[in-house]
């Protein structure tokens, strides 16, 4: 299996209003450094799994509506607790839609799997990985 | 599959008294930067795979008896060659026990897999990953 | 010159309500990975510039009132634009006070300089460095 | 599953003469920081999956003919577009041959899988992972 | 002293045709991950040393003519051996010109010093740092 | 000022038998990832501050007698507490001797300053920096 992974980041505010989150129940924030990996079983005739330029552009497009936002105010996260895992899954779903819409170029149909990793600090990260 | 991964470290001495280890047969040591990943198939109603705080605490608890030790002196490693792989497997087993004992919180039963990575330098690391 | 540097992090929300900040004028947030370096001209009789354990504890103490907070709500930042540079200087001042109060141990008087670096993403950081 | 991963790097020139590569069609270059992971189901009687020293040596041997080269001039890449993915697969094949030739030591037969990761910048990487 | 540092990268080919470079005399290449630090003695009324957005844009502008190029073909490097140090100094000079031209915003005059670091691999880097 | 910095590492055991070290008083160990920076005011006619190859070789030569050792057994550290700071200074002195002996090549006399950084974990490091 081949994979191409590109990195970007978002800086967001949110609250996690459930007792389990202790001091993180109030309004706070995070930088999420986001790695998006696109998996393919083979390469196209140009030697590409996914074009890194296209992957970078699509990831930036997906992240833009989240960047510099208070996630508590976004309709897409209404009644949702925006943990790192939940945001990873949300970005996964958005990128899966982009793959389905062939926004990763003519070889989009060859992408069979995605892995989205969110680094929330130097000491913690979470990811969601699944077949498309 | 979701995963939450937390990082900590230990600083240990040990010897590797077998000919294959060449210059590492004598007493020397290592900092192991330890990444522990906890995998779940879904998230709980708080949006959590595993609580990062609980994961951090349990990893610290597991590492504490190893930190600042000479592994050659520890009963748990008697007659064992404490390679990076062996220590990764030992930490895996300890964390698997913690999961079984529900020390990762009420959602402990949802953890299906662990991956334990030990970085021994900027140029080498080893890991053990398996289903529980 | 010797230096000992320790790392910790905070996860905060804030707004930057000035036109120059463009999309960052609204409520958003950041993880700041914080490196605090303590400089000394020489070492004490135990071979220490600063005890890494003490440095880690004091840095954690200084960061605790900021962690998981909305900086817009904190009295210490009233009428202040909490840029990365401003927060670096604030942490510098707090650590300078800790040094003056000998909270870094009996050798605190030997610390002549501090450098506080805040990494706000994989692609940007800021620091403040000055003599005490 | 156990894995041992070692890191090295190469500095190469190449061109990517297909329209999809846009500004990268001309002669340019890259540093590839290469991580090679060797997977085994169990450990030998010395506690090893693969000897890190042997893995480091074999990886260096495989990279040497590529390092400081213009890949456009190498016979092994004739009529090949040397994308990051293609080079990852090439290094995989070379290491698979080394495993088959037992160049990883007496336990070479125990290696069941390889993962070769090429970091081309702080923001992009690609890998090829497969069973042997 | 305050500093704001931003990161970008270039992927270039070049040759180093002098005997001292041994295997690097021929055409090869590098990814240079570039950190540009802008130093100021104080902050402006918005709490800024340098605006990170402006710094990122100006660094990208300076790097663009170098990215994906064969440096041997560029007029600016005619009769120059393009070592990592030389390229660091070249980027320094370009950024110094940008500061002088007030391309870093109205506070450009407050920038007193630059440090340009080029990481050529995980194991080597070079920098040039000087007052303006 | 120019600088060229190269990275290597050592894996050592030692004890720190003074009360201030608490749990680190007994035999334990560390991986020290070592960065050695060589400063020059200008570049030679080949565009070099220091040749990275020569710097890498000399650093490896200096580290070799320490690697895989129990520092408590080494004559050079007799009656010395081998803190990270002390080892950084020791490596500085060895590299300063190498510079004085012109082991960094014909341009050795141009090196005016060294900075030796020892990373002992992902969360702590120490350095010694001084003019020659």
TrEMBL record, chains A, B, C, D, E, F:
Keywords: Lyase, Metal-binding, Zinc. GO terms for molecular function: 6-carboxytetrahydropterin synthase activity; metal ion binding. Its cofactor is Zn(2+). The keyword Zinc applies. InterPro entries: 6-PTP_synth/QueD (IPR007115), 6-PTP_synth/QueD_sf (IPR038418). This is 6-carboxy-5,6,7,8-tetrahydropterin synthase. It is an enzyme of class 4 (lyase). Belongs to the PTPS family. QueD subfamily. It catalyses: 7,8-dihydroneopterin 3'-triphosphate + H2O = 6-carboxy-5,6,7,8-tetrahydropterin + triphosphate + acetaldehyde + 2 H(+). Its EC number is 4.1.2.50. Gene3D superfamilies: 6-pyruvoyl tetrahydropterin synthase/QueD (3.30.479.10). Pathway: Purine metabolism; 7-cyano-7-deazaguanine biosynthesis. Catalyzes the conversion of 7,8-dihydroneopterin triphosphate (H2NTP) to 6-carboxy-5,6,7,8-tetrahydropterin (CPH4) and acetaldehyde. It comes from Rhizobium oryziradicis.
């Amino acid at each position: 299996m081949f994979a191409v992974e590109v990195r970007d980041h978002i800086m967001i505010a949110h609250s996690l209003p459930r007792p389990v989150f202790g001091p993180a129940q109030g309004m706070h924030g995070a930088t999420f450094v986001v790695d998006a990996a696109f998996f393919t079983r083979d390469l196209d005739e140009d030697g590409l799994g996914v074009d890194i330029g296209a992957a970078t552009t699509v990831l930036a497009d997906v992240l833009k509506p989240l960047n510099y936002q208070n996630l508590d105010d976004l309709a897409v996260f209404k009644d949702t607790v925006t943990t790192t895992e939940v945001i990873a899954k949300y970005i996964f779903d958005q990128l899966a839609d982009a793959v389905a819409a062939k926004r990763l170029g003519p070889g989009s149909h060859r992408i069979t799997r995605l892995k989205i990793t969110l680094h929330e600090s130097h000491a913690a990260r979470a990811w969601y990985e699944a077949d498309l």
